[in-house]
Amino acid sequence: MMIFSRKALGAMLLSGLIASPTVLASGPAIYHVTITNLTNSINFTPILVASHRRPVSIFELGAPASKELTAIAEGGDTSLLAATLGKDPQVVDVQSSGDQLLSPGDSVTVIVRASHGAKRISLASMMLPTNDGFIALDSVKAPKRGSVIYFSPGYDGGTEPNNEWCIYIPGPTCGGEGPSPLGSPRDEGYVHIHRGIHGVGDLRPAIYDWRNPVAKVTITRIRH
Question: Which domains does the chain carry?
């Protein structure tokens, strides 16, 4: 499993190893997917966005997280999910927001093709600093015309205890090297709404806690 430590994130940003948006092939339509960070102090790792035809589930509330979702929720690594979606015949396009973290109050637009009957959008990204928090949309309907707005709460992958210790939290705030030990009795074991930051470890709630929703997503259909 790839984990984004502070050193690893820096190296990837410099070397461009995280995929950036590409020039899209011509088609009947595309979607502009704009993600806005609504939090005060939480960053989002590079965001994976996919367009697809039928519902393609990337997570289910109340169910255990997949290995693909675990990689995102614990370390911001979208490569496993991108590879899985890329093999699904129902998926039309998979893109990334680039190689930068999305800071509080900022927005980023990801462009995905909507050809071949793609009418649904899914996305996912890790929330930093958290142990296994993430944002996501799971097979939401894209607009036939114009724009539609969705909101994401902070989700908890349920794969790691929320000990809030920086040694277990990757990214620029904490720079930890990996997840907490497996099998902890505080692993919830299923995806649920995140409880936020409570000051049980290294993070101050006055700075890093949040109220939902944490992300605004505007999906706009562009015709040619």
Answer: 28-223 (2.60.40.2130)
